[in-house]
Amino acid sequence: MSSSRDIVLARIRSALTDVPAGEEAGRPPVRRDYRFAHVLDDPKAVLDLLAENLADYRAHVHRCTEDALPGLIARLLADRGARTVAVPPGLPAGWLAAADVEQRPDDGTLTAHLLDSTDSVVTGCALAVAETGTVVLDSGPGQGRRVLTLVPDHHICVVRAEQVVASVPQALPRLDPARPQTWISGPSATSDIELTRVEGVHGPRTLDVVLLDG
Predict the structure, then answer these.
(1) Gyration radius (Cα) of the chain, Å
(2) Which residues, in sequence order, are CB contacts of 64 under 8 Å at separation 6+?
(3) What are the mean pLDDT values of the chain's consecutive 10-residue runs (214 residues total)?
(4) What's the chain look like in SS3?
(5) Strand pairing report for 164-165 and 127-129
(6) Which of 137, 175, 181, 177 has its CA nearest to residue 157?
(7) CATH class for domain 38-212?
(8) Domain residues of the chain, as ranges?
(9) Res 99: pLDDT
(10) What pLDDT is attached to residue 37?
(11) What's the distance, Cα to Cα, between the start and end of the chain in Å?
């Protein structure tokens, strides 16, 4: 008498009999002849689209040069009344050079409780997707652990022009699937209760994105 396992395996073998030689069973080649992006291959247009879509998600978008970045970050922190800021490992020291705040470097000892009493966090990113208005973090240098960008109420994220891609199909090959990824499209928000938008439920209430385009 055949066991259930034998029956299942027999059905699988039968289903795989027509797999072409050289093709991995269960993994037929995927056609990728679709359009990879809907904007022209124009870096300025891609950056403009990212800024537009981020703003549509209610993120605050700022554009400046590398030289002006420390002053802009200092102003954004001051405008929020921030007195403490979480600093991920690998964040360029010059970014916070002009900020009059207590810096809390994350060496793994910043607990959720400590981060809850931290006003802001400043990070870089892995890349950004223009068509979806999304910033992607993968815990690389200058980005830190995921908890850093989920608990403080204010997140300043710096995006360099060369980190911006037009579309998700262009983004995925540049990301390491083994790394923990956080995809951010605007500040944290939910409309689960009576379709009323509430911000700051699952992450920062305020997202400032700084685009370095010069």
Answers:
(1) 22
(2) 72, 210, 211, 212, 214
(3) 84 77 63 70 88 93 96 97 96 95 92 94 97 95 93 96 93 93 79 60 84 86
(4) CCCHHHHHHHHHHHHCCCCCCCCCCCCCCCCCCCCCCCCCCCHHHHHHHHHHHHHHCCCEEEEECCCCHHHHHHHHHHHCCCCEEEECCCCCHHHHCCCCCEEEECCCCCCHHHHHCCCEEEECCCEEECCCCEEEECCCCCCCCHHHHCCCCEEEEEEEHHHEECCHHHHHHHCCCCCCCEEECCCCEECCCCCCCEECCCCCCEEEEEEECC
(5) parallel
(6) 137
(7) alpha beta
(8) 38-212
(9) 96
(10) 72
(11) 74
Q: How many C-beta atoms surround the C-beta of residue 16 within 10 A?
A: 10
> How far is residue 157's CA from residue 136's CA, in Å, rounded to a whole number?
10
The answer to whether 136 and 127 are in contact (CB under 8 A) is yes
Identify the pLDDT of residue 38: 73
Torsions phi, psi for 134 (to 5 deg):
-120, 140
pLDDT value at position 29?
67
Which pLDDT score is estimated for 98? 95
Per-residue pLDDT, 204: 84
* Residue with token string 């999304």: 134
Residue reference for tokens 């409780």: 113
CA–CA dist 158, 88 (Å, integer): 13
Structure tokens at 149: 């960008």
